[in-house]
Amino acid sequence: LVYYLVTELSDRRFGMISAVILALWPSLIFYSTVVATEALFTLLFLVVIVYFYRVRDCPSGIKAYLFYFLLGMLIGILNAVRPMGILLLISIGAYLVITLSRESEYLRNLGKILLLFITLCMGYLISITMIKQSSQTITNRSVGTSFIGYSILVGSNYEHSGTWNTDDASLLDEVYQDGFVPPDVVNSELLSTAIDRILDDPIQFLKLQFRKNQKIWQSDQFPIDFYHWYVDKDSLGWLDSVANSLLLTRLSTLYYSVIILLSTLAAIAGIYRVNRDFMIFFVVLFIINWGIYIFVEVQGRYHYHLLPVLAILAGYGLYRVNELYRHRT
To answer: How far apart are CA 119 and CA 71, in angstroms?
Structure first.
């Protein structure tokens, strides 16, 4: 999907570089053995992005609004897998506004963009409502509209660096101690507690950001550690990854660090090069995902779905280096 997407947007060389970077990513290889929602979410994440790029330049008319409505429904399904799908919707909206601002007829096209985004949101809301109603019918239990309250509560805990902890889990249990409480009421109460925690000591909350960024972005070894915690060590055979875990961790960290460096350089180049305006979307997508972690819970694996984005950005960095070298020779 990465190769197809980048090749469609640019050329085969750029697509191949990005695809190879992703295919050789050590943590991605190890995490592919884990049965978790991240793998499915990342796959659907890329499918939705590919679909968006296929319909973004669709001419005005009923067809354009239908395509964006379906895009919104796809994002709703994505959000049902992991509640980060809505960030893709926000990123698409931001991207449309940014690219529109670079056009000469800004005000003339503003109405069209606004209507397309409203159609996108309608598709999303209808999709998540249908999924919620279906879940309630199947489980015969009330399903909440949002669970952001608990995530922000955990993400604002300075003592535990914004990660899961038994203290906040106990607060969740206390809400339920008097019997069944509607999920949306629970979410509201936990969100109120989280806001009070932030406002009571905003300086501490600002200090917390450094520790949270360290937790989620500093290393990429969580999948390797996770694999070693649960792997059947008697079935490893000749490829004893446990015995070589230190070497694997170092290689993974080195690979990840190089990709982050290339991605940063590519992000800067992508913003300033007009003829590569599609790169702006990936930059916006990354920034919005980074921004949400200021507030919500963090874990080392929570950047997993952004690995393809980082591979594309890093691929662009290497692609630009290759272009410069070819022009000079």
So the answer is: 9
Provide the 3-class DSSP secondary structure of residue 164. Answer: coil
Amino acid (1-letter code) at residue 326: R
Cα–Cα separations (whole angstroms), residue 147 to 43, 73, 180, 219, 309 = 23, 20, 16, 27, 26
Q: How far apart are CA 206 and CA 254, in angstroms?
A: 29
pLDDT digits (tens, 9 = 90+) for 51-108: 998 887 776 678 888 999 999 999 999 998 888 888 899 999 888 888 766 655 666 6
**DSSP code of residue 135:** H
Structure pTM?
A: 0.83
CB 303 within 8 A of CB 213: no
What is the amino acid identity at position 42? T
Q: Which helix (H) or strand (E) holds 186?
A: helix 183-200
- Per DSSP, the residues of 195-234 read HHHHHH-HHHHHHHHHHHHHHHHS---HHHHHHHHHS-GG
Report how far residue 197's alpha carbon sits from residue 245's, in angstroms, rounded to the nearest whole number.
39
Dist. CA 167–CA 326, nearest whole Å = 57
Q: Cα–Cα distance between 321 and 327 in angstroms, integer? A: 10
Tokens of 42: 């990342």
